[in-house]
Amino acid sequence: MATDVKQATGLPSGWEVRHSNSKNLPYYFNPTTKESRWEPPAGTDSETLKHYMGTYHSSANLHPDGAGSQEGKIRASHLLVKHRDSRRPSSWRQAQITRSKDEAMGIILGHEARIRSGQTSLGDLATTESDCSSSRKRGDLGFFGKGDMQKEFEDAAFALKPGEVSGVVETASGLHLIER
């Protein structure tokens, strides 16, 4: 099977192509080592990968006529506070996150209080306080559908009305506030 994957994608054994919802770009992921990267890993067959990406990850192939591209999808922003038990305890803000889950909860509850009081917005806070790379876009994750996000995140996001902000949502990534 690993040979079939290499033949199809050109990637070394153990690597796969995934899609980043925050950047709306494909990336490379190794589920065994949990390593993710924007550049193809060493040992990639560039020509095979180029063909694979052109066939399966080209925006022209997603919705050639543009019709229905947002059908069944919602758009949301979030603010993420990671802790040492998060799936990937590092971020653009901090190479190694060492705070406990309780400390992270205290931080995110403080953010929620500031948002609910009208002192600031989720987007303004996300820019400087979110542990997600979507912070560059004020926490905007773009449009996503059912099955695109972690279940807890998706359930909370789809339950919100446009303009609403969730309470704290816990996922394997950390603690989130979500705004639809």
From TrEMBL:
<protein>
    <submittedName>
        <fullName>Peptidyl-prolyl cis-trans isomerase Pin1</fullName>
        <ecNumber>5.2.1.8</ecNumber>
    </submittedName>
</protein>
<keyword id="KW-0413">Isomerase</keyword>
